[in-house]
């Protein structure tokens, strides 16, 4: 048998050069690789092989007197009778910042219009905006005063017109989002415990209220419990890069993985889950400022797991199309376009186009082309095309 040694040496040389190239690229990109791929491998290993989330609960459990410091803030604006005497299907908290008055007005005029919901959908949904205190005096930002009127005075004036602001006396900032989350569950427990569902959402989210109401009415008629739906993050690792606004130190959270949680852009829980989360906040350390992760920690402590709903968006914005609107629940990242989207998503043509066998087949093909792309992520998954 004739062996071509020159060809063998040539193949070995190519293999050696390829190996060196791969190793070089890995060495150059190691830091980024370690922060993403490696951290996710560690996280999934911890979640699926070790899965000692009971240690997390124990490490974050603190005396009730200490836990009270995260919720014992004075109300600056409050409406304790907003739910009294009403059969409330949904209490919807919108997380907002003091300066975002245009966003609040847009929501009041579109998907968060309580009068529209009552008259057109036949149910009571209470929409409340959750916020902290604006920064004032030392380090006062330029937006804190307009036309010589203090920003808090403007909020008081806004609330006197609409009656939908709930505000506590902690600084409204990114690092106090967990305080805002706790405020929502405590407010429901004390002011609106009979509401069948609680939703928390960002103020740049779009909620398809007709679709959501129909879905929650169905869930309510079935008497669901332990209900928590949204865009689920499973096995997510803490971000250790100090350049990220989501940076979490080992001192704040020492574990390799977060418990499962839903994206904070928008999720819904049933009233029994809301009460369990309220109870959890009475004994857990809330210094972790990533509110959706803290929600996952609370839920894990009381034995509640999130459920995926394919038409709840994460951080992404859903495609603009009639076939998407037909089943849309939430879409994230809408500010300037919210009026146009509300008009288009609730137009009668949506149901006319998507109904019947031909309409369903057409929409399946459209949604496959819109959602089933390798680079399209963080909004509806490809499987949503087949639901």
Automatic annotation (TrEMBL):
Residues 1-31 form the signal peptide. One of its GO terms (molecular function) is lactosylceramide 1,3-N-acetyl-beta-D-glucosaminyltransferase activity. It is an enzyme of class 2 (transferase). It holds the Pfam family Galactosyl_T. Its EC number is 2.4.1.-. One of its GO terms (cellular component) is Golgi membrane. It is a single-pass type II membrane protein. GO terms for biological process: protein O-linked glycosylation; sphingolipid biosynthetic process. It catalyses: a neolactoside nLc4Cer(d18:1(4E)) + UDP-N-acetyl-alpha-D-glucosamine = a neolactoside IV(3)-beta-GlcNAc-nLc4Cer(d18:1(4E)) + UDP + H(+); a beta-D-Gal-(1->4)-beta-D-Glc-(1<->1)-Cer(d18:1(4E)) + UDP-N-acetyl-alpha-D-glucosamine = a beta-D-GlcNAc-(1->3)-beta-D-Gal-(1->4)-beta-D-Glc-(1<->1)-Cer(d18:1(4E)) + UDP + H(+). Pathway: Protein modification; protein glycosylation. InterPro entries: Glyco_trans_31. It is found in: Golgi apparatus membrane. Keywords: Glycoprotein, Glycosyltransferase, Golgi apparatus, Membrane, Signal, Signal-anchor, Transferase, Transmembrane, Transmembrane helix. Belongs to the glycosyltransferase 31 family. This is Hexosyltransferase. It comes from Dicentrarchus labrax (European seabass). The gene is b3gnt5b.
């Amino acid at each position: 048998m004739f062996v071509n040694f020159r060809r063998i040496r040539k193949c070995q040389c190519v293999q050696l050069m390829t190996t060196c190239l791969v190793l070089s690229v890995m060495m150059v990109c190691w830091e980024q690789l370690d922060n993403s791929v490696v951290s996710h491998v560690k996280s999934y290993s911890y979640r699926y092989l070790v899965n000692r989330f009971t240690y997390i609960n124990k490490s974050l459990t603190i005396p009730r007197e200490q836990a009270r410091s995260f919720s014992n803030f004075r109300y600056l604006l409050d409406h304790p009778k907003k739910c009294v005497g009403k059969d409330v299907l949904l209490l919807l908290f919108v997380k907002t910042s003091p300066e975002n008055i245009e966003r609040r007005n847009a929501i009041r005029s579109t998907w968060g219009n309580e009068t529209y919901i009552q008259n057109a959908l036949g149910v009571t949904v209470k929409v409340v905006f959750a916020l902290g205190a604006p920064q004032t005096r030392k380090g006062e930002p330029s937006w804190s005063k307009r036309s010589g009127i203090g920003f808090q005075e403007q909020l008081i004036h806004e609330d006197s017109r609409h009656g939908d602001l709930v505000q506590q006396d902690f600084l409204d900032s990114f690092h106090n989002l967990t305080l805002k989350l706790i405020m929502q569950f405590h407010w429901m427990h004390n002011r609106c415990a009979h509401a069948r569902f609680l939703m928390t959402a960002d103020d740049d989210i779009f909620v398809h209220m007709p679709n959501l109401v129909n879905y929650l009415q169905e869930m309510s008629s079935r008497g669901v419990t332990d209900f928590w739906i949204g865009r689920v993050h499973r096995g997510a690792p803490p971000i250790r890069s100090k350049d990220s606004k989501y940076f979490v130190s080992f001192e704040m959270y020492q574990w390799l993985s977060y418990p499962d949680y839903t994206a904070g852009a928008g999720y819904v829980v049933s009233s029994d889950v809301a009460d369990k989360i309220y109870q959890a906040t009475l004994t857990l350390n809330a210094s972790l400022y990533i509110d959706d992760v803290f929600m996952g920690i609370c839920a894990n402590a009381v034995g509640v797991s999130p459920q995926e709903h394919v038409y709840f968006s994460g951080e992404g914005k859903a495609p603009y199309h009639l076939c998407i609107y037909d089943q849309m629940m939430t879409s994230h990242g809408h500010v300037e376009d919210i009026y146009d989207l509300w008009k288009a998503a609730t137009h009668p043509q949506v149901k006319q186009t998507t109904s019947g066998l031909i309409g369903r087949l057409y929409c399946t093909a459209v949604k496959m082309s819109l959602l089933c792309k390798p680079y399209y992520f963080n909004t509806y998954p490809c499987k949503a095309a087949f639901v």
